[in-house]
Amino acid sequence: MKITLNVNGRPVAVDADDPQMPLLYALRDDLGLHGPRFGCGLSQCGACTVHVDGRAVRSCVTPVASVAGKRVVTLEGLGTPSRPHPLQLAFIEEQAVQCGYCINGMIMQAAALLQTNKNPSDDEIKAALAGNLCRCGTHIRIMRAVKRASATAA
Ligand code: FES
Ligand code: FES
Q1: Residue 68: is its pLDDT beyond 90?
Q2: Which ligand is nearest to the CA of 132?
Q3: Which residue, 66, 111, 120, 130, is most buried by CB atoms nearer than 10 A?
């Protein structure tokens, strides 16, 4: 069956034999959007996070059919190379990336936080990112990057 989605502001149709297929597979395999990563596939790590109608969701456990007609935004749709999102800029400026595997989820989760709280405290940032795992241990620089972005965006 064909499922129509709106991804990064554009209508797209994906083929899904199984409507329960994870949104992550459609994004990566059908649409070539490799910002969202496959980490655990079990909603445990946050690497696959995207926005659906402005909310951060884990695309590895979100059936593609459940987002038909909704607005999906991936890391690629957050900013552009010439006009990066303040978080994308801040993560570069703070050199917050080591292997990079978790960074999609960190940025997408933080972006959802900044949409509702433009000047979060350290504790609020920690709480928002608590479910996003980073095995490289760059948490201190990630915190600095989110603080920097919130100062820019505020
Ligand atoms: S891959 Fe989705 S939460 Fe880990
Ligand atoms: S930078 Fe490697 S997992 Fe976070």
Answers
A1: yes
A2: 1
A3: 111
